[in-house]
Design a protein that fits this description.
Layout (H helix, E strand, L loop, with lengths): L1 E3 L1 H6 L5 E3 L3 H5 L7 E2 L17 E4 L4 H12 L4 E4 L2 H7 L10
Parallel strand pairs: 1-5, 2-3, 2-4, 4-5
Enzyme class: transferase
Protein name: Thiosulfate sulfurtransferase GlpE
Keywords: Transferase
Length: 100
């Protein structure tokens, strides 16, 4: 499984990012530009995944690692973000919170 750190994620440009946390977690704050497709729904929403290479993030890196393994088995070019959103926030990076 390919993986990157949050620092490497921050340096990436034009690589789609899928956040597999549940909607309420995503709404509480996420990496700017991330698209929310919860792990519990991803199997029914494969048509929404990018056709090009993309990254997957969750809170700590566990759920995203399981999703990456499953998607690799389906032929996707996908990379896990180690440390997840929690590490992104711990490093003081910008977070998007949808306005209420």
């Amino acid at each position: 499984m390919k993986s990157i750190t949050v620092a490497e994620l921050a340096a990436r440009e034009n690589t789609p990012l899928i956040d597999v946390r549940e909607a309420h977690e995503f709404a509480a704050g996420h990496v700017p530009g991330a698209v929310n497709i919860p792990m519990s729904e991803i199997g029914n929403r494969l048509e929404e995944l990018p056709s090009e290479a993309f990254d997957v993030i969750c809170q700590m890196g566990g759920r995203s690692a399981r999703v990456v393994e499953a998607l690799e088995g389906r032929g996707y070019d996908v990379t896990n973000v180690d440390g997840g959103t929690a590490e992104w926030i711990a490093e003081g990076r910008e977070v998007e919170v949808p306005s209420a």
